[in-house]
Amino acid sequence: MTILLLNGSLNPASTTKKLLEQVQTLLQKAKYETEIINIGELELPLFHPAQPAGAAADWLRERIDSAEGFVIGSPEYHGSYSGALKNAIDYFDKDLLKGKPVGLLTSTGGLKGGINTLNGLRTVFRSLSAHTIPQQLAVSRKEFKDFILTPDCQKTLEQFVIGLDEALQHQAAAAYILLK
């Protein structure tokens, strides 16, 4: 199974990307194929429903369509997720994500941040008929000092990956039953 990890940060020193890399490492240990896509590198034009999507958007939709699950990461900007991520999401067709497991994570500036970002992402992915897993991850810079997670945060990260794995296994079992 292929898991796509989308990084909604444009920052070259992105904490979100570092978190996604840690999730990627755990998923690879669990024998998943993974790919991180940095939204900022795609140079997607501002979404316009009446204009052609372009090669970058078509490529992204193909990657989304071929993946079995997702981890979506965004920094918290003013209590929400990044505009770059929202622009990329606007290119998704609803059926691309239908029933597919999605894990959500955010990197924040403060210890109590991130909930609005995660709630906003959860709302968007529910509207796209994705299966957002209950486990989520909000990590502040203080919990991720020098790109090393605190022990409590590391445990939460591991539970996040376990939750995604369980959702993927459930999806695979349900697909198998339907094919019988």
Automatic annotation (TrEMBL):
Coiled coil: none
Segments forming domain NADPH-dependent FMN reductase-like: 1-141
Domain of life, per lineage: Bacteria
A Gene Ontology term for the protein's cellular component: cytosol
A Pfam family matched in the record: FMN_red
Gene Ontology molecular functions: FMN binding; oxidoreductase activity
PANTHER family, sorted: CHROMATE REDUCTASE, NAD(P)H-DEPENDENT FMN REDUCTASE LOT6
Family (UniProt): Belongs to the azoreductase type 2 family.
Protein's UniProt name: Azobenzene reductase
